[in-house]
Batch of 2 targets.
Target 1
Amino acid sequence: MAATFILDGASSSFNGDVANLMFKERLWRKLEVGTCLVKLFPNRKKERRTFRIKMETRQLIWFRTLAHVNKTEGCIDLQEIKEVRSGKRSKDFERFTDETTSATCCFVVLYGSEFNLNTLSCIAPNTEECADWVKGLTFLTEDTISSPYPLQVERWLRKEFYEIERLSGKSLVQFKDVKSTFQPRANVKITTAKLKELFQEVSKSTELGFDEFAQLYHSMIFVKEIVALDLGRYFPDQQTVSLHRMQDFLVMEQNDLVGQDCNAVIELMTQFLTDPVRQNKEPYFTVMEFEDFLFSKENGIWDPGNNTVMQSMDEPLCKYWIASSHNTYLTGDQLKSESSCEAYARALRMGCRCIELDCWDGPKELPIITHAFTMTSKIKFLDVIKTIREHAFATSEFPVILSIEDHCSLPQQRNMAKYFQDVFGDMLCVAPVDKDEKQLPSPNKLKGKIIVKHKKLPDNEQQQTAISGTDSEDGFPAEQDLRFSSKRGILYLEDRLAREWTPHYFVLNSHKLFYTGETGENSCEEEGAGGDEVSEQEEAATNGQAPHLNAPWFHCSKEGYSREYVENLLSKMSDGAFLVRYSTTFKGDYTLSFVRQGKANHCHIKSRQERGREKYYLVDQVAFSSLTELINYYRDHPLRSNEFQLKLVEAIPAIQTHENKDWFHTNLSKEEAEDMLRRVPRDGAFLIRGRVSDSNLFAISFRVERRILHCRIKRDGNNYIIGDGDVTATFESLNELVQYYQTHPLYKSVKLNKKFPVSRELVDRHIFDEQEDIYDGAGIYTDPNCFQAPSISVKALYDYTAHRPDELSFPKNAIIFNVDTKQDKDWWRGDYGGKKQQWFPCNHVVQIDSSQKEEETPLGIMQQGAIDVRGAEIVSTSKVNNLYVFKLRLLVGAEREIGCSDTDELTDWIQKIREASQLPDNLETHQSERSYKIAKELSDLIVYCRAVTFAPDKFPRDFREMSSLSESKAEKYLTGQKASAFVSINRMQLTRIYPKGTRVESSNYDPMLAWNCGSQFVALNYQTPDRSMQINAARFLVNGCCGYVLQPECMRSELYNPSCKVALASSNPVTVSLRIIAARHLPKTGRSISCPSVEVEVIGAEYDSSSYGGSNKYKTSKDRNEAAGFNPLWNETCEFDVVNPELAFLRFVVQDEDVFGEPSFIGQATYPMPSLRSGYRSVPLKNSYSEELELASLLVHLDVSRANEDQQIYQTLQQLQEESQNLCQRIEEARLEGDMAKVEEMRLKQSELEDLKRSKREERRRYRQRKLSRQEKPKFLQKKKLSSVSLRSN
């Protein structure tokens, strides 16, 4: 252990003096030995645990103090630690109110690889011990992250070795452990014969120690073809790469000046040497070590020079892109997620420099922050700004802007101003930097300052007009903004299929009642407040299922197991073993079977009704409300009779068989399955069907998005394999398959619905709607990618009453969704009022655009439906179970029943709905303009970032003003003729763009257009792991992740136009030649071994981006090798022409496929193009939150050259590209017009254009090869060439 510690210490990134190093070593040794600390649990418990650092794997582990060290209760990888915080600053401490514990003895570890971090809260025995843990963990985390690649691989291998050791119970690894445990974990599946061969090469024994295990790993991951492709000349003996050849490689292939410094190369190579003896001589690489170097972070594609602030920070603020967050306080969606101070800390530590505070009146004149009128929780304004003060400059010293969305009264605004001054003190910017300034100050001049963005009291009438709008919208809030609806909350709808009332989130605006899908009532309750995880029995009860059905002792067969079968099960068991089954004698009751004195005994479990509830009992005096309670009682209390007393001890688990499951059907055709599923209109409703003709073939049929899909299942021995072709998943039983896909998505985001396994009984009790239309494709098992549900929406111009059962009735202004216009030119089909795909006359409607559609879907993708309450009336009220139900009769004649939880809510909802039903269509007649008031105390704090309504016609304005635009409003200024004017405004003034109000799920818009038009604050939802946030993370990687990036020189030119490449003042186009060679350590996305592919795209200006019709996108084929996820090989080449590389990103996405052929995300890497290094480079992969995946990386070869050095070919390619884009637009227009003959004709022409482009690119490639061949070769290659000439002459 000591030797390992010294090795780790040698790799330390700390460069302090000897005393500092000795202090750290002493501290690390102390943490390695371990300490007894008190751990706080979410259920308000606190217990002692022994904590220690496992130095070999760099993990923090803990276990019960009296337990053996191998019985680890929990562990944290040090590389996942984001912060070690002293004091009682976590939710665990908030729940645990103990005033006697000193804050100086407490600390919190925040860790994870997502936006919302996990916490570990501990109490040390004294202040000194606490300080040691805080310092030691901080030092060790930094050291772990900065460790060289070989050391990181060794630590990963040790974690795998110890995990195999834990599972097998042995200290050495056997062949079967590698095959059954290591291979699935490492995402590799090598044939048994090949694996045995590799195993025997590293050890003649049948067992491996760690050193042999590491050798086996290196043999498995090494792919000789990678270095043999083009780099064989650097190891002519096929064995080693010498120091001088390594220098030549760095200079000639990598364009890296480090290769000219012999000592620097020696230091670099030493980190990768597995043999310590070579460290004392002139080092050399083995071929395996050289390949390890190629995949290492030390050889990364990212230029490490960008890890420090390297841009000028003396330009005005308006010349920078500034990292900005929207709804910073939220940890998830905008309906029911939690608001948290930790979200502010996380965003600031990620480099965000502009954060949002939605301020509302709180109790006792104390403001709060929340997404008002939703189920999101509330946090105190004072707690938030204290968190901001603590974390504002932890990552960056440059200014933080607080974007205030103010809904507070004047007294509470004054309190806000006071808190700002008290908490921030001198950090608060309350006066101009220079008295006579005529432009915004620079980030350097505002270092360490906090700027408040808010409206400021006007000096004159003109300014009064400028600030008359709200900060969230530059005018009256849009109707679809949830915060300005008339009522919202939880109501209940009856699910007649499930025979229960389910909660939904409802929003009432001026004339419509919108609602989400089924939701939880207590979604924003504090995590863990009720204790630990919910048990399976509790979950089953919540789902309306008897808890005993999931109990291990219950043997579920409705026909009942025979006595002989049960006695055979019990015959080999000891006394107290038991099971419960359906009674074969007393139908509807149960039987308890148990072992006494080696023999089976059977007791009748009786049942009776008491006050409408089922009771179960063995003796009349002791009755229970469930079988689970009965069994638990007799586990603690003995069964008593005149002959014996016996407690139930060991439950005999049921033999898992699918034949008795509701969802299994022995012989059902595809058509019959679809007919049954049509009667159960619920996403995730499913069944599995077998074949009498072949007992090894099955199929799962299920509903998703109004479609029915099918997937084959094949039995192979004792395994069940789902899927066809390359992507499959293997299970030990159909029960396991169903249980897995009830908790994991089977198709897209849809899981099998636990409530709706489709049986004959379920179908018979559901009323079949013959008009329901299921979209299905051709073929027996249709490729899901071919499904395209209609997406057109129309608005009714007149009232219409149906004349036939298959027609829709609707009032004027109704919105009809999913309209199909192709089946009849006069009559269309669509969805309205709960009816699907019914007919209506097309001359009664008009098609609406996306912005109008947003007004009808204020709940975004979470919206399930809407009820038009105009002209509606409440016809009755009643009580159903514990709910108060009112019946709503709509203008179209339909009736809807809606439930409330109490009478007060019932009265309030009825009143609001009646008011809405009587309002006129014209909103202007009942909306009065809101009066916005600003407290002088708060106004006095506003210097820069003065919030005003965006008014481009009044430009130029005061440089200190700042406008906020919603995404919808900004779209008008980001493209077309208005884009240039918007760019001009942004050269002098600040603008902030934020997501539209209908993004209830907290999704993000594409930030590229806004950045390209010069908008400084492009606010995104940091908590959402989508493509937009990944691009945002890449944007602010440069300049030391300080949150400020200087806009490129091209954007400052008066000629700059974001959508016109001709207008570029100093065009410097480049050609990016990229070879995607291989990858390592790709994580698994599901149960099966990966078949990964890589998609590469250029994102930048409109004319360069693949997203806007460009061709700068390439996807490799899938690697179908047996070791695909572990070390796939592609060796495919692509080429991109980039007109404006200063605005461009290069994005890599690695994907797998699920069993339906749908893409499944594995990892991504996105980089600004000017910050990349050429040559053979490693591309470290990140997860969807832009956190690095352990050891996962691509190997690519990147070459960036001037695109116009071969001017004629370049111009031809550009012309072909423009022709191709124009043709794409014409194809789409013809497709919409229905002229398919013209579409096919133009597609043939497009194919010819693509062939021409490939031909021209090949011509350019040959031209460059000839040019490169004339360049100077490495010295050792020149010598080799000369000796060959001499030999021939002799």
Target 2
Amino acid sequence: MRVAPQDRRAPVSKDDSRRSFFWPAATALALLLNLFCLAQWPFLERPRKEHPNLEEAGQGWSLIQATELSEAKLLRPRQNALSADCQSSAEGASEGAAAPKVEFSTWADLENPLFRLDASSLRLLPPPGPEGDKIAEGRRWITFGLSSIKRPKTSYLGITLSRLFDVMELEAEPTAVLVHLADFNEAWVQEEATWLLNVFTDQVHEGRLHAIHAPQSLYPLKQVPLSGVTLQGFHDPAVNARFACQSERQLAGRPTYWTETHFLYWCLTSGSMDHRRWGIAEVAEWEEVKQGNCKFWVKAPTDVDVLDPRVTGWEERSGEKWVISDTAGVASVDLQEGETAKFGDGPQRQWWRSKQNLDYAFLMWYAANVSEYYMQLEDDVQPVPHFAAGVRSYIERSLLAEPWLMASFSSMGFIGKLFNATRLPQLAQVLLTFNTESPCDWLVWEWIDAISDKGFSGDTPGEVEEKLKLGKEVRQDLQLYYMAPDMPKLFLTEPATKDVTKPSLLSKLNGQRGAKHPVAFAFSSMDPYRWYTEDKAYPPGDPMGFWTSDTEVPPPDPTNSKQHSDAFKYFQLMFKRPVDVVRIEIHQGRPGHEDDYMREAKLKVGFERSCKTMDTILEMSKPLEVWEGSLPQEVECLRIYLTKSQQQWIAIRDIVIVTRERQALFSPSTSALPIATEAKGGTAAHSAILHALTAAGIGLLAGTTAWLAVWQTRERWERLGGFGCWASCFAVVLDIGLMQTLAPMQEDSALQHPMAFAGADKAASEKKVMLPQKPPLPPGHLSELPRKPCGSGVLQPRLQIDWRAMTPGIAAVHPDQLHHLGPGSDPRSTGSSSSSQRKFMSVGIVADASMDANSVAEAALQLARSGRGKAIVAVLVSPRDSSKGGKTDRASFVEKLRTILGSAADLSEASLLHLLEPSENLYPPPPLKTKNIDIAMLSMFLAPLAHNFMQVEPLCSMVQDYADSIRTYTEQLDNSHTPWIVVQFTKDGYLRKLIRSRLVHRWAELLVIFPDIPADALFWNFVDIVGDVPVPKALYIGTVAERHQRFDVKVQYVMSEPLLEHLGDMSSLQGKVQRVQERFFKDHVLSDNLFDNPPGIMRTSLRGREDMLQSMYDGSPPQASVNCGNMSAKTCGECPYFDGAGCTRGECSWGGGLCTSTFNTEQVLDEPSSGEAWIELVFDDGPKDVEIVNLRMGGQLVPIDCKDGDCSQAEKPDANMDHALDDAELLFGHGVADTNKKGVGCARYVRMRHVSGREVFWRTASSRPAKGVRCIMVSAQRAQRRPLIFRHFQVRSTDAGKRRVASKALDHVGPSPSVARRAPQGLRAQQLAISDTQQVQRLTWFLVVSLACVSGAFGGVFGALFDTVRPRRKRRQ
């Protein structure tokens, strides 16, 4: 009997059932977790590798919080970055070292001294290093430059920057503000730079804020040449004496002044004790002082660079102590012969004025490579809210593609002057070269006058001659010899004809790039109201717009079929070129006049140039009309017809034209993955397919490989089950395969550091973010020039330089490049130019190979012999301007001249005749002219050889003893104390003009700066610059530009609302009076959107009118009448002011066109009885997030009375100017105080900053607001030195920015480019672009992992099916 086989499978228990479910579930969860980690792994943050030298790597500032940047080394310019290409440029870099011997050999050396200065080495912010360099490289649309120094008791820089960034917040194009921290106090510079980095963190990282600092070693600031100094007020009578100048005895590059017992000198030492001051030592101590050991018996205040009678408070040694005397100091100074105190300024004022010129020169030199346009501002201005829009509108409306040199947005000095950045190097060179001659706001007009063919300096000779004929008083620096009645005739030949034709500015148009709107001419048949003309409505952005009351439409005449179109009322745009229009926006109405819009009108377009046939595309009846669509042809003109008369005025504020090209430029990218836009020609699609196939192959390989592993190791993993074993193996294989082939690697991507992402520019272009591009360098920039070898021919390292290495190159031409060919000895090598050997005058001739050598030589010999030993003659042979143009002809011409001149043995021995041949390396490349360079080199060669210089024609002939006749004439002038600088022997041109040799270098430097301007015209600019007249002729350009339209100078503020106001009332020069306001803002309110002053209650523990304190904050009416000085009124706004003068005499103050309340108290003079005296603001609506707090205290400058039409006088400070806190604290309060406790409004307070002085500004650190502030308190713990006048208590919360953006959004509907939100700039733009790219990378990687998982799952299913059908091996019994 056969027994049925038993079932070998054991019964399954409940525990086994749970285990069989648990392990597959756990494996599935582990697999999902692995896939999640795999998707995130490439994007996880990893700790940075420590760099051995963070400062050298340029990473130090990015790894350190801004609050930790207390070490000055992080914000210092690069060491040895202020550099020249030759070793000689750096010898004796310190001020006290001997003057280095710097000699130049090429035109690049002569062209502009600033080319030797690496502008980037001046930069403090963004901090130096690779990361900061990358941020600073960004090209901007416009840069606003300002210079700031440490002012006593006040600082305007913070609030000025805040206002500038606020008004530029909605500007779509990249902008920047450049600050020159120009104080010589290095500690203040480092402190201020660190503060800027702390509070304007976002702006620095975006490249919107740059800060530079030019060290004092770059400033060639010296004492005005003095012959003697008289001191007074000292106890020692030997010191109260006149100290005579001894120029041959110099210390630290400055002359010393001597008596029989003492000498006065400039001490400059650094070490354990730094000295920068004037001092007096005994004569016996001279040798010791020469060794650098400063000995003092009397010393001036530190850092007072000049000897000025206005500076007192010198110290005198009394035994072992130093005693300060308030009356001790300089009694008077005596100028050297021929020197004048220009404009009546004292030495200190001249020194300050010279420094300001140099501040602006370095500022402009750095700004030349930052943006397309540059506007000069000051650190104490306030822009109107529409400042950025107004500037852009004026540029696009009046400046684009026009031959302008400067546009003025303010009538106050150098404020608001706009330039094209390509012209900045030349203007900076003018400020650098002539820094001692005139203030900057005068030199800029000299620069314009020199270039423009509509200048006024050329009228100088005719004006002087006319006044002399009429017997009127004439200027003393120009003497007309040819009109002197008793003087003999000196010239035997006729003068040459003058050449004053300047290059046309039309060939150098400015700003042809950057137009956002099609160029069009605006016209209207309706008469505009005042200056609200048609061009204010288009291009959009001008806050004024077009405004008219001419709204009466005549009825159509049915009998006249040819009724003229002027009978209708319309506004028309005629485009310069046909445009493909896709959108038109017409914004009407004005703030306060919202009903001024067209009730019934038609918008028509014309497709012909004549605009006779117009097609209607829109019926208009609302303040905002928008048309959008497509037209069959390109539009030639656009016209808005008023079809029916109306009583309301019409205000067309903006017309926005969007073309198809512009729409495509601003349309958002539709690409989701970078692989879709990586390249052209199918490369992107090929890359995408390759990635997909690779991912699918890796997944399938992982799935099948896992089953092979399961079959081989099933017995070991039997407890996990088949799925668990497969999943574990699949995860391992998949991870290794994907990470090794397709994963984005952090080491090579932007994920490691945003600035390292090479694709940021590309990603930004996908999103249409305008990342700044590296700017083109100006012609001749140091980075474009090859590194020049020095005398040895070997390239030298770039070394640190000072001001001596930046001297004009024409003053130090290498002798080997200006060849001396005889016949006498070379005075440059023999030292024959000493004062005792100098002749009375020198005569120069410029010849070229096109002339007859015999005639030129004969003329030179005649001039040398007729001078009778009192005149030196030099002939310079120009290497160009030859009609033949051949080197052989020039060589033969020079050799013939040399032979003829060398035959005059008597002249050769006396060194009265010289022949010069300059190298062609000293001349600019074509097409620049070379004549001015010839004149400059000739005059600089002859200047040291004689007391006076004159250039004549090549074939000029003069009478015998002409030098004696001229000398007699000049001695008469000197005896009558006439301060002459030029004697004219002819009326026009530069020839036959006798110039004092001490001024010849100015003439030569001007010729080099303007090589293309004819010397005949440029000579009168030289006279205008160096002459001592109350008002230079060039300044008339500005006066005429305000009254009549000029092509070279554009004036914005005359027919438009000014965009800038000057608020500073504390000058950087002690004793200098400021001018407070533009004339326009004496009658109009100056708006300020920076502060929102959230509703709150003002309280104080001080005696005073609390209602005035509240009125000061929010403008609410006081509870009682106010004191206006001589009368009372209900509010300050009702006080009679007479241009503000009446408003300043009482409880009110004047500013921004308004008379506002002030809070006055004298209780601060007393010691606080309750522990402290305070003024507090408590917000009504609960805690606020505060960004800015600004306090203004003290008196003010009293505005002038313009009732008689004379507004030229300067304002004067009132008696309460310094009535401000000197030791208090600004506190922020949080929480609610106990209701039963009287007094302060908050439970706890945090100190924010110290309060001292007239202006106190606080801004939150790191561009992040202070959260949850309920109270703002000003607290004083001790008695103050003066009473308190509180003029402003201003607060900005985060609500201010929100409301502003919202108002702009409501004001403009639709995606108009003119109102687009400001595009992110600099680092923020790159970070946003990188963020977008990272998101795309994440999505791409996720899709890759998903595709690999799906293909792996297919592999797993296939393996499972195969496992069920394949025969299993029988287990052995």
